[in-house]
Amino acid sequence: MANRIVLNTISYHGAGAIAEIPGELQRRGYKKVFVCTDPDLVKFGVAAKVTDLLDEAGIAYSVYSDIKPNPTIQNVTDGVEAFKAAEADSIVTIGGGSAMDTAKAIGVIITNPEFADVRSLEGVAPTKNHAVFTIAVPTTAGTAAEVTINYVITDVEKVRKFVCVDTNDAPEVAVVDPEMMATMPAGLTASTGMDALTHAIEGYTTKGAWEMSDMFHLKAIELISKNLRDAVAEAKSGVPGSGREGMALAQYIAGMGFSNVGLGVDHSMAHTLSAHFDTPHGVACAMLLPIAMEFNKPVVTERLAKVAVAMGVDTTGMSTDEAADAAIAAVKQLSVDVNIPTVCEAITEDELDTLTKDAMADACFPGNPREATYDDVMGMFRQIMK
Predict the structure, then answer these.
(1) Cα angle, residue 287 at apex, residues 212 and 250 outer, rounded to 5°
(2) Which phi and psi (to 5°) does residue 233 adopt?
(3) Where is the Fe-containing alcohol dehydrogenase-like C-terminal domain (predicted)?
(4) Closest residue by Cα to residue 74 from 119, 38, 104, 34
(5) Are 153 and 71 in contact, with CB atoms under 8 Å apart?
(6) Is there a smaller number of Cβ atoms within 10 Å at the N or the C end of the chain?
């Protein structure tokens, strides 16, 4: 069996990296950029850090920012029409997963118009052409959408999220500049950081894990464990530091791994919570992470023991089983330290059946290392009920 790795053609990392954007566009001869971002980033001047560079370079652009936190089919179809109206030839997407996921879907549909209904992109769609040339600039340290071959869209009509997996959607260039993350509030810093940790731990324990992805995931777990608390503290104080820089790199490294090997039951359940209750994705992942780890522990005990070591736990003298438990405890403590809630108050008994069925239909579900039954999944949802 061959193991596949798909990454950006080029990625830039470090403070001030956004200065490379105009050159990447000019060298390729692009004339009109479609800037895909979210309304708050426009409102608070974050997107302007990039568009100012385009202005200085004399590169024309059009801004599209009509995007919800959990982007919808309508956001995508409106974006496709906006791209066409702008007569653009390239995309620069600025934001968290919402903006980048929307940009991926727009870019794919422009070059593969037979998928214009958006729903047909669910799963592994047989697109033939790579998306419009895209430069992705993350403003949160969590989703790693700038390097992944995945994106998630909300179907409002059917009250569900669907995952799209397509090598044709990967942005050619990623620009991971921690200065673009400077305005993240503490809560968003915490939730996106825990999303990145979930990516790393689920990716390390998924059915598809192998040596190269393990390397990425263990390093990401180490960096997140060292830097997330500091990043949250920096967000509260407004004083930038090494925590934010560490998280910018860590979330990208996690994306290098999980994008290529898949995720598991945590993400399938988290997608369901976001679709039904608009729960922030990172919060949903974080609430469920220790529960999913506990469920999977019987089949990934040795791997969880290595997670404990990566998180900085001294496992000297512990059995493998004890070290695995220590990993779960370390995840719980990190969530507490960055103020992640432990319950989803919106869940009611009447909704459990629908939530469970939707989670089991999610594209991430088959990657879980332990087979989960209907009763297993419902039981995990019950653990985060008020």
Answers:
(1) 35
(2) -65, -40
(3) 189-384
(4) 119
(5) yes
(6) N
Amino acid type, 214:
D
What is the per-residue pLDDT for 240? 84
| CA 73 to the chain's CA centroid | 18
Q: Phi and psi at residue 366, in whole multiples of 5°?
A: -65, -20
The pLDDT value recorded for residue 150 is: 93
Strands 60-64 and 173-176 come out as unpaired
pLDDT above 80 for 312: yes
CA dihedral 324, 325, 326, 327 (to 10 degrees): 60
Name all domains of the chain by residue range, CATH numbers in brackets: 10-180 (3.40.50.1970), 186-383 (1.20.1090.10)
